[in-house]
Batch of 4 targets.
Target 1
Amino acid sequence: MSFDSIYSYKRFGSSKEIDGVRSGFQRDYDRLIFSSAFRRLQNKTQVFPLPGTAFVHNRLTHSLEVASVGRSLGKMVGERISSQYKSGNESAFEFYKYELANVIAAACLAHDIGNPAFGHSGEKAISAYFIEKAGEKIDGSDLRSFYNDQEWADISEFEGNANAIRVLTHSFKGRFNGGFGLTYTTIASILKYPCESIAVNKQFRHRKKYGFFQSEKETIMNLFSEMKMPVESGYPLIAKRHPFVYLVEAADDICYNIIDMEDAQRLHILSKKEVEECFMGLMKSINRQGEDLDRLWKNYQAVSDTNEAIAFLRARVINVLISEATEVFWEFRNEILKGEFNDTLLDNINQRTKALNEVKEISIHKIYGHDVVVQIEIAGFNVMSELLDLFIPALLTQKPSQKQLKILDLLPYQFTEYRDTDNKYQRTLNALDLISGMTDEYATDLYRKLKGIVIPGLK
């Protein structure tokens, strides 16, 4: 791969050339912002539930902040790359000077759009359902027997990243061809794991998880070709990561590592002293840019409001990490272009400086293991499992019962492709399309109604 051949203005589902004031990449950003799938992120758990009046992050605010960090990373890296094309490739110069920041910002907005309700526990609940029900009989056959190995790997290890690709590119019934109609460049930038589910191998960063379902395999093959992404293997399908992925991934890593700490302080899970020591220690261990930390500390101490003081430090830490991630990307740009950089930008920083060790240690033991977080994970397992147990048998059986027919009536029109096929995998995906798109609140409400805990219309 080379910088002058890894971007494209082509859009999914359209051959029309974009003209007008807004570029295709700015339109990607706008289409995402105004989409219902993006709006639903406001009621999807990031790490914490929303306790009372405490303002903490959900997946929507997280995605907006990741987009902000991503835009900065794209701008800083784009400036460096564009400097190589000041005399020569005018198209490449224009793209990297003015558009890379828009690409990374749009991709950051979309990176969590396929995640189900209840955070990562929602993904685990979907996977667990199929594993636990594998031997259950439907029309006299085991559930597992309805799927080939590749299809089973998709649903028994459900992956929000792969679901994002489906949400963004699949032509759902009654909707536009090409899904959101985003550019190939933006989609390539969120494909963290350019391999199918049977190719997962945690020794390789780009195969730690999988990035697309079997239903989108042909779409992804076209993406690999258009974006000049080298294919390592045709079966199982594996390609090298697109270089822009590293910037989107770094923006996400920076935000969830740092902002979860800020939220924990707001919720009194962590003290002000714990967070300030962690943030200051992180900046001291990196500080490649030679920031005056003594002056920064004085400015911090001048802020008497605890939340605002921590927010001040958070902003400075993010700035330091953005600058350092830019340096790492540029230092390893040749390995990244060759697909030989088996690392992330943040992990590379941490291996050299140990800057994030304390953040991760505190997050694991004091934040992610907190009682409220564990409670919502358990609740998520129960809700998602029960909803799947209503929809999956109804979609797979040849002769649905009266109750199951009523359940199928609940599927919105765009998720009724099952009516046109006997393929059990495609039918299963329609259930996952519905359930994975639900917000925490809607999934819980529907669960209570369908289980008879609450009767609609009755007080």
Note: The radius of gyration is 23 Å.
Target 2
Amino acid sequence: MVEKEHQTYSESKYRDVLWFADAPPGDVVYFEKSIGEYAMEGRILYNQAHEEPWVLSIHGARADFTKSDAVTFGLQRRGYSLLGMNLSGHSRAGVLKPEQTTLGNNVREVEAFYQLLDGNRKKVVVAYSLGGTPALKLLENHSDNIAKLILFYPGIYTRDAYDKHFGEEFRTSITKPFSYRNTDTIDLLRRFRGDLLLIKGQYDGLDPKEYGKPEGGAVGEVEIGGNKYYSPIPKDVIDMVYEEVPDSQFQLIEIPKCGHSVVLWMRDHPAEAELLLDKIEDFLDT
């Protein structure tokens, strides 16, 4: 479908500025998708049968579609075709500078790429950190067609932040105490009838009271056992996700001695990463 509608090419136009330059384990094509007055690059990782993608991968802040290669490459090896895209404002591959774009634009970008997935099968959506909000917003119009949702340490924000330009304006909006309670995504998750897998590091989503930080926010950087960890997701956000999904639809995987970025931990722990990918595959196959 994508190859018929968009000109494809074999190397990313942004390969010199991407997080990682590892070669995918299978066939790959790149293409550009117009989003109004600008275009964003997408990447398809095909399985051996060269099936159209039905898995959508959504990166987080300060990232591009290669940052989660530890997951996407692993799923490609396991027989999945995946579509990823660069989101505006988060890297040089994201075309627009942070001050030129918003989380609301990211939501629209993800929606545009979602439309390119195989229309004849149920979808899987995998999202990381800030990408959790565009992923959950897909449930507004596509809940019945999304069978599985995998959220790595999801970012859930106040609806007031959607139109704030990235940088200080956005940061001020989302760091107000308990601002995330003004979200419009948890209601969408509450009505979701598919299955959710939540993956987080042991030292993300920490309780701020236990670390001398104000309630209603995240702990940030913290030293535990002589090691520094980054915990930008408020504990309340993780609890909100726990509370809104029935046990029959919900699975949790917590990575020991890991902070926020599980995908970078996976690169440093390849054997453990394969075990995690096995668990993800089990979730997708049930």
Note: The chain has one domain: 2-285.
Target 3
Amino acid sequence: MQVIDIDSELLWRNAQAAKHSSEEGSRHVGYEIDGTVEQILSTLAPQGPYGFTVRQQMMPDGELKMQIQTTREEIFEEYKITRAMCDVFTHSPLVEIRGNWYLFQEVVNTGQQRSGSTVNTNQTLVLLPVTSSGGITGEIFWYRVPPETLGRGPTPPDMKTESLDVRLHSLEQHDRYLEALGKADVDGMLAVMNDSVQLAVRDYVKDTGTLTTPGSKATYGDYWRDFFGKYDLEAVDLLERVIQEWYVFAELRLTLRRRSDGASVAFHTAEFFIPAKDGLFITQIGHGTDEALLDSVEWKVAAE
């Protein structure tokens, strides 16, 4: 008796892709614990560009600063610095999504500064985009900090702090973001972003293959206006979402029409959003797949 009628080949292909993402991402994490920089670099895809976010910096006034790295040389130098500063002992995922093209984890890490004797425990997020042929193309990283350190000015007096209330608020904010994205409403997208928002997502406007350069709320708006100038967005499909009190993670499938030649394309994005003390998102960082050209057969199947 058939109960759940699904294409067995589709299930197998999805399982193989998820297994591959897990293996490639876990191999990178394992070498991070081992600490040998050359082995860590061996887990990168042979060819760049890459997209790495490193060491977020919270300024005394609550402003957030981020930087990205795009070349193997930059990544090598960064790992030499961090591995000389500290050791990672354990990496324990509490939430794990093994996507078809990425590994996402919410993690508890333990480690120790080389100059100290105290073992520290931190909560982190890591997103590792994986190529089909092997190797990662980026490491999107965030470590948890108290929300009151994120964003300028005092914490609003009416902000709710209970875990469930915070999560429900982030759900509402992310839903507002998705609605505005689907309408190409840049002002609506800006309305859920903190004044210090940092955008580091795959740059589809300049088609660099790496991440946008984090800047300001103004540059956030400029990027999305240019994006909608390049693409006519036809559909936004939410595929995965995790909402915790300190982040929102989501994978989306975007279906678009290029304005330059009318071609129909699609790509997936995997990004996480970090709420500031005012409940607005202060970070949107992640990566995305290459454009896939949609041919007439795919459109026919979708229509049916």
Note: The helical segments are 8-34, 37-41, 72-85, 163-182, 186-190, 217-230, 296-303.
Target 4
Amino acid sequence: MNTDTPEKIRSEFTLPSAQLQHIRELFAEFLPTYQGNASVRLWNGETVIGKPGNPTTLIIRNPAVLRKLVVGQDLLTLGEAFLIGDVDVDGPIKKVFELVDSLQQHSPRLRLHWLAGLKTLGLPAHYHAKETRKSRAKRAMRHNSRASIGHHYDVSNEFYRLWLDPEMVYSCAYFQDTTQSLAQAQCDKLDYICRKLRLKPGQKLLDIGCGWGTQILWAAKYYGVTAHGITLSREQYEYAKARIEHEDLAERVSVELCDYRELSPDARYDRIVSVGMFEHVGLRQFPLYFGKVRELLNPDGLFLNHGITNDTGWRDTPITRFVNRYVFPDGELTRIGEVNQAMEDAGFEIIDVENLRPHYELTCRRWVQRLEAASEQAQKLTNDMTYRIWRLYMAGSAHYFQQGSLRLYQVLASVADIPWQLPLRCDDLYTPDGTQIR
């Protein structure tokens, strides 16, 4: 956390009045029509953008941020400045993304950009906390490797417990309405997946990327299956193993610290599920990943793939660079059409495709609220930078799910070219009024 007081920061960055006027002009040029719910305040206490009473204020504590933002024209600057405390957010962080959208939409003419660059020449060139500005991840990490998975998931079980639901589900919930609790919505999601897979007692279920083991435990307890989960996270593995023992389900539930590529080719499962994992696989590895799932699935089996997609395919943008550098070193997203094509190429028949985009927006909003409410504990368990990374990442995810550039799909598939195994309709998933049965 940046422990400098506002007074110390103001004295450190005392600029001539002409330079301050240049800064005001910069904001007028780059955000000429912004009328949103976020304000921008400088290190000296002056508000340069926004209306009085706005619920959220973006505080620029170091003028070097402006110089780098203008000269580099890279919004990653704002994200990294936030991580080290050179930019702060007072109020709900979700409103900041209105500013980000406005900056992305407004592209000043070359002459204006050149003039803007001249106006920043007198600003400080360095971050006062630059010694803490270190990348937490390296893009060169291998897709779905133990190092890349551990980078994100082995932060601390106690850290995740602060803001996840009691079942420790770190994926999109399934809400009945916007007032439903996160805990109940996550239980509904667990059950919904079991119903989509039409689980029956005695079946063998594999969960690829099982997290803290919640789905395999749920399926065993309520549907009578024998369930096996694999994960690359040591922390998740130890947690899941202890929970299986605690709930006395070791005869029917098992967990393994294992890469999906290491699963025995002789193993066979009636049902396979993967929730929030294939985003780590890497686009070039899709044939290997879906081919492995097809190899492990019995001929009359079902496979459900639950994961995030986007509207453009994977591109090099400030947002993707931030995610790869600080959140998911190996993360790559693509369009749902590319996912379905890869599944069909691997020998699957697509049975059902459902977009749960609004559900993930609601989920991320709840996570951010819970994380912000536990900010002091989160920083004690990890550190200020980690807290800021997760706060920014989840708030941004909620924004882009709301906007529509991020989507969340559940794709149900069977082995291709076999007789139809399912009911003619999906009435078994719902009661007549559209709510879930359990």
Note: The domain at 146-429 is CATH 3.40.50.150 (Rossmann fold).
